[in-house]
Amino acid sequence: MKNEQAAAILQDIFQQAVDSARAGPVIPPNLPEKPRGRCVVIGAGKASAAMAAAVDAAWPEVDVSGVVVTRYGHAVPAGRIRIIEAAHPVSDAMSETAAMLIVEALRGLTPDDLVLALISGGGSALMALPAPGLTLPDKQKITRSLLHSGANIKEMNLVRRHLSAVKGGKLAVLAQPARIVSLIISDVPGDNPADVASGPTVADHSMPHDALQVLQRYDIAIPEAVRNLLNQPASPVKKVANGEFRLIATPALALQQAAVAARNHGLTPLILGDAIEGESREVAVVMAGIARSMKQYGHPVSGPAVLLSGGETTVTVNNGQPGKGGRNTEFLLSLACALQGENGIWAVAGDSDGIDGTEDAAGAMVFPDTLTRGRMSGLNAVNYLDGHDSYSYFHALDDLLITGPTLTNVNDIRAILIA
Predict the structure, then answer these.
(1) Whether the Cβ atoms of residue 407 and residue 48 lie closer than 8 Å to each other
(2) Where is the MOFRL domain (predicted)?
(3) Do residue 52 and residue 160 come from a single domain?
């Protein structure tokens, strides 16, 4: 198989997985019964604007209004629903403004009204209203430290819930006495609704001390106001009697669609899991070993085949200022180093939202000649990997995967093709 053919197959597998999680197809069949009164739409996340547009189009006869916030560059027109853009992965002033407008939209509701909460990954940063006693700079400092610490997304969102005036189910309480239905596009390993966007409509049963332990575990400097807040006793969990949530798109469903696409290309798919975590470069070494076993011995399945996986790996930066890149390009550069040009193995990895880390690429691709072409261009792959500069390496080879914002988010999608 030539590089061009393998690249086309892997890109198609990736694209079909992403398309299966788009708001247009998944919103209408998951809408609840129409309300007798108003429908107030709130939401936060990279997919929230596209989700809002789908709601507005599906219910032209319903009194629909509301506010949702999405990442800069991810907005689309949503008719009667206001769209706000804010920063990700570190909140900015618009994140705080959006949270206040969402809270305002929930005032004066009645039992006849319906609140539709459109929740997707990225909402933790995009909707940021500090808990009483904290400031936005307090939250920004903690977030920046967590992003470079190696903490996983569950740990990060645990902290965020306890530093927020709207997360951890607090928005659901504010929506009372209206009925609230949360439509959730999950981007977290395990699909726990409390972890998606830090669960603004899902009751939080963790303790403030749990969040404090996360910060201490990763040796993160804690502002005095944050420490004081997390040393307070936990408040009673307020229950919402008329609330429900629906997972409408998940990493597992996206990988199932990727498997269908692989079969259509004559490949045997093997899904390794939708919740794989760990250091990006270490996960890559493990997967390189599996790929080599398949290539040489036909175990656990014989080729032509494709290894599929999802989840959210981490990148721990402990050697100063990092270069450019995200967890997917770091995974791929480590994979290339581990494979050492093994013939008949190709790979793609990308964030399903189209943005790997903070760069403009979803991810990249690895070919049997990735390291050879790099050396011919004067690039030392190990040095780039150690400097967390994987984006620059793949950019120099023109092997980045550029999709633009996909307006959905079911976490990372990785596919390794073994001929």
Answers:
(1) no
(2) 306-412
(3) yes
Indicate if 318 and 196 belong to the same structural domain: no
Nearest to 237 by CA among 153, 149, 293, 172: 172
301 and 369 share a domain?
yes
Final residue belonging to a domain, choices 195, 217, 249: 249
pLDDT digits (tens, 9 = 90+) for 342-369: 999 999 999 999 999 778 999 999 999 9
CA 315 to chain centre: 15
Distance CA 99, CA 122 (A): 14
Q: What percent of the chain has pLDDT over 90?
A: 87
CATH code: domain of residue 293: 3.40.1480.10
DSSP letters of 295-333? Answer: HHH--SSPSSEEEEEEE--B----SSS--S--HHHHHHH
DSSP secondary structure string, 380-412?
Answer: -HHHHHHTT-HHHHHHHHT-EE-----S----E
Are 363 and 336 in contact by the 8 Å Cβ rule? The answer is no
Helix (H) / strand (E) containing 12: helix 3-19
Residues 280, 224, single domain; the answer is: no
CB of 142 closer than 8 Å to CB of 220: yes
pLDDT tens-digit readout, 14-23: 999 999 999 9
Q: Which residues pair with 83 in a beta bridge?
A: 68
